[in-house]
Amino acid sequence: MANSQARRALPISGEDDLRVSIILPTFNRAHLIGESIASALGQSHPPAEIIVVDDGSTDRTADVVSNFGDPVRYLRQDNAGKSAALNRGIAAASGDALLVLDDDDLLPPGALAAHVAALVAAPEAGFSFGRFVRFSGPSENAFSSTDIEPLPQLGEKRLLVQLMQCCFLPNPAWMVRRDLQVAAAPYRRNLPRGQDYDMILRIARAAPGVYAGGITLHQRKHVAARNTSKGKVVAKDTVSGWIEAEQMMFRELDATWSDADFQPFSDSPAGPEGERLAILQRAIIMFMRKVHDRAAYHLVRYAERLGNGAPTPRELMIAGDLLGARYGIDDLIDGSHDPEQLGARHLPLSLRKAMARQMPWRMRELLRDGRFEDAAHLLEWGARAFGTAALLAAGADRLIAYRSTPQATPRKTAA
């Protein structure tokens, strides 16, 4: 990087724009943070300030940051974890809007411009968001990677509900108005991971979001260690840590949020149907997040309200996401979940058929990978959970018979 670029002054945005503060928490990433800072400095809409919060690094992080001169403000603290660093950066920020940039990720040149334009055009929105692309290795790979995180069909459901089903917005993929961020309270320090997921749920609950369009983040994927209040965490290709953290998060969320927070559609009808939609959506989300006891509890509530009535097409659509957990369904295969606990057998056949909708795809995945015993366990679980008639109606038998026939991959629905 040219020294002149590193030390250039950051202009203040015009009156019609938002002043953006970029907060960059870091810990022992001297070999990567320079690229992250350079991507922030290279924005077509320059930030008003870049605040690096060093969480007690023992490498050359301070020296790397100092090379950028005045455009970058450097704060250092004793090691206390990423959440503590984020909270300090938020307190120090003066911008109208805040964007958190991880110390190994990159912003494409037009990221801030897209966020600012979206928020200026939608003054009712509390935050803006875009898509992100994953890359590995050197930064040059960021612009050639095709590993782009899909967004759900925007507007199909409320954004908050879509985020509860699938975390498609890591921290640097969104920008939030400062007053909303402050009102959302600090980043939690008792989660080993997923602090940004917890935060975007709180933000989306408080205010609507607006799509900025296009790619606003290049996310670097690699094995790396980070310190938290619970000790050192190694991020790698494993889901057990995420499942545990999100189970904790959603159990607490279920205890404090109301049914209205789970209302899936912005135009949901009032009265009994609207109540059923919210409760059913709540049950499905809890099951997808593997908080199975709470899912069963809310299914009982839903069944009581449905009575002898028939589910609406929207209720069937919601039920179809039951087996869509992004982290897989190994908990249904290994015997850790009792299918009778789901409490679905007393529900109408149409609803049980909808709940079993993804069984054929799950069976095909297991058979394709040679996991025949697991496929048998899943089939047994499904028969006990939904009933054989529901499985047959969902087409599981045909999928097993024609398991060697190529099939389209179903759309991801949940994390």
Can you give a write-up of this model?
This protein folds into two domains: 16-235, Spore Coat Polysaccharide Biosynthesis Protein SpsA, Chain A, CATH 3.90.550.10; 240-401, no CATH class. It is 42% helix and 14% strand. The chain is built from 19 helices and ten strands. The strands form two sheets. Strands 1, 2, 3, 4, 5, 6, 7 and 8 form an eight-stranded mixed sheet that branches. The chain has a two-stranded antiparallel sheet with strand order 9-10. α6 (159-165) packs antiparallel against α8, α10 (272-288) runs antiparallel to α11 (292-306) and α16 runs antiparallel to α17. The protein is elongated and about 70 Å long.
Describe the protein's topology.
Layout (H helix, E strand, L loop, with lengths): L2 H4 L13 E7 L6 H9 L7 E6 L6 H6 L5 E5 L5 H11 L4 E4 L10 H11 L5 E9 L11 E2 L10 H7 L8 E4 H6 L11 H12 L2 E12 L3 E5 L2 E5 L4 H17 L15 H17 L3 H15 L6 H7 L10 H4 L5 H4 L6 H7 L3 H10 L3 H15 L1 H7 L1 H6 L14
Parallel strand pairs: 1-2, 1-4, 2-3, 5-8
Antiparallel strand pairs: 4-7, 5-6, 5-7, 9-10
Helix pairs in contact: 6-8, 10-11, 10-12, 12-15, 15-18, 16-17, 17-18
